[in-house]
Design brief:
Layout lengths: L2 H10 L4 E3 L5 E2 L2 E2 L1 H13 L7 E9 L8 E11 L3 E10 L2 E11 L23 E2 L14 E8 L11 E7 L8 H9 L19 E5 L14 E5 L24
Antiparallel strand pairs: 1-5, 2-3, 4-7, 4-11, 5-6, 6-7, 8-9, 9-10, 10-12
Helix pairs in contact: 1-2, 2-3
């Protein structure tokens, strides 16, 4: 089942109750980018359409089991004149599996101009090596993405640097990209510590934070790619910048 179909399932669910297929497993848990996309879609429902997502903080509390129902609870903490603050949780078997806080803001004029992160200088996607899918090494969910390595070393290569990244896209045909899709694309990259390891180890993120500035997503991106970058300079920060180049280009610092 495609990422888009799974997001649509949550959008159409009256009780925010969905089931993750086993094809989206990450070890013994469901891929965090999918759970993050689902919680965003649930949090989006009570917010006025003109208020865009400005920031999202996520804590991965526990593993979400595949082929079992997971429910998303939301609460509007405050709806002011310009900003709506929403809390979201993923619940399974009576426990909290994910907790999120999102800020949605209406557009407004400002005298302050803030530039987003610059696009890293990398080779064109056609000149970058595609990451192979190796059974027993790459997680199951990764088969839904096409990775092209452009920055740093491969995971489990014993590198001295934690900087890595490259181009990534969904393998499924895309009619458009939403904020929910971006959450999946950003989280699909392995943790930045993986290149420093000499052999395969389990690694997972516990927290994530995204900030959006004047986000403009393309209406059609069938062959669209995003770029993710991991940097050792800010090992716990994540910054998202979408540049005006016709394709969403995501610069991430993890």
């Amino acid at each position: 089942m495609s990422f888009t179909t799974l997001l649509d399932t949550l959008k159409q669910s009256a009780d925010n109750r969905v089931v993750a297929p086993a094809s989206w497993l990450q070890g013994r848990a469901t891929f965090g980018g999918l759970i993050g996309g689902w919680v965003y879609e649930a949090m989006r429902k009570p917010v006025p359409a003109e208020r865009a997502l400005r920031s999202l903080s996520v804590s991965f509390v526990g593993p979400v089991a595949a082929e079992a129902a997971v429910t998303f609870d939301t609460e509007v903490l405050r709806q002011g004149g310009s900003v709506t603050q929403v809390q979201g949780r993923a619940m399974q078997d009576g426990g909290v599996m994910l907790a999120a806080l999102g800020s949605f803001g209406a557009p407004r004029e400002s005298r302050v101009g803030v530039l987003g992160a610059s696009m890293p200088a990398v080779k064109p996607v056609e000149q970058c090596l595609e990451m192979p899918m190796v059974q027993g090494v790459t997680p199951t969910f990764a088969e839904h993405f096409a990775y092209r390595w452009a920055i740093g070393d491969w995971p489990f290569s014993g590198s001295d640097s934690r900087e890595m990244g490259g181009w990534i896209r969904f393998r499924e045909p895309m009619a458009g990209i939403t904020e929910g899709h971006l959450l999946g694309l950003v989280d699909a990259w392995p943790p930045a510590c993986c290149p420093c390891l000499n052999n395969r180890r389990q690694a997972a993120r516990c927290v994530g934070q995204l900030s959006f500035r004047n986000l403009c997503l393309p209406s059609a991106a069938t062959n669209g790619c995003c770029i993710g970058r991991r940097s050792s300079k800010q090992p716990t920060a994540m910054r998202l910048s979408v540049l005006n180049s016709g394709l969403p280009q995501v610069a991430c610092l993890l």
